[in-house]
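Hey, resending since the last one bounced:
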Amino acid sequence: MALLRGLLARPLASYYLLISSSALLLIIGLTMVFSATSLREFATGGNAFAALTKQAIFAAIGLVAFWACQRLPARTYRALGQPLLLVSLALLGLLNAMVVLESFSDGDVSIGPIRANLNWLHLGPIQLQPAELAKFALVLWGADLLARKGAKLGWWRELATPLFPGVVLLCVLVGYNDLGTMLCLLAVVVGLLWAAGVRLRVFAGLSMAALLGVGLLIAAASLGAGSGAKGAENYRFKRLTSFLTTPSQEECWGDSLQLCQARDAIDNGGWFGAGLGKGGAKWNWLPEAHNDFIFAVIAEELGVVGSVVVLTLFAVLTYTGLRIARRVHDPFRRLAAAGVTTWLVSQAVINIGGVVGLLPITGVPLPFISDGGSALVVTLAAVGMLASFARAEPDAARALHARPPARWVRLLWAPLPPLPPARRRKGQPEGGKVGPRSGMRRSDEASATRGDRVTRIGSGSAKERRR
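The structure tokens again:
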């Protein structure tokens, strides 16, 4: 424990913990995507490495985004918050409009090279998920807004404008097609408000409003929202309540197929797993084994030991994000770090809880590990922003300025963070430094007894006393 405390006391401990945990999760993700997709890709296209190659390309793009975000100062992130939010709202509005038009038409609806597919926009050969960009945009915009409001957050009207209308509009546009991602957005808002120090009664009011909104979106599935059909059984309500009861044998071959197959895969894994690449669930038994249910493949092939390693890495990432939020002095950095950490952790908890049967199945991917390009690129960009905040911790910034790396390292990796203000000595006034002469006079005056000072003031001529 003493060794661990000594390592955590190092100035750049947060930075190295963040980089190492994220890199290990990314490597595990690429490995498990190959394991979960190699058979299917070989059977359909004759190339077992097709899905891995695609995911590796997105990982390379994400690393470039990580490098770029690590170099940006905080003022750039504050300036990007509102434009990114507007772009996300526009893309989500376009996506929902095209999905609604498709429900009233016989074929696919397209605008030039733009096509829609439930949660994805196809811009020619590029596939984009606007909801992933909306998470990052909400973190930046919300952190900047709350940081500017400061002590005014104690008033309801300061929270009501413009934070609540923007969050409601974003949640409606996302939740129309994707209820799971909307829950992640609500978790981000809770993380931002918690880091800002909002009172508990505000959280109570927000919880009631969130439950009402989720209920309305669940009811909207009966009218055709998302994947639902008008007049059919409400699929959202059934998915959200399926984990409360044990599915029957008939349900395991019907609507509860994913949950039953995931539990069987976890049970087959045991303590040490069947071996990497030797799992049976991915042989077209488990739907979405490479995406939403990739944790079941990990549990089957790597066992309890491999699952605990993944959970430990997410725990380290959580601790590091909250550590960064606690150590930085800038309010925007603190709020943004708390928002990103809440986003990644809540998404991981929702995904893993749905796979093991402790939470409803909502269809959100597992960060760093699930197959998906948009989610991986945006996640690595958010981690890059966290890395820049970790380097801006006061102790880390002083250490980097005390012994700066070589110039070519700063050009290729990251520039020096801003140097924090000097530490104020005990007894020193906050407005400025005490000059040497004034400090000397003060110490001499303090060292003299009260009687000596009175005698000294009272002695001399009247002119000297007036002076």
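Residues 376 and 399 are 32 Å apart (CA to CA).

Sorry for the duplicate.
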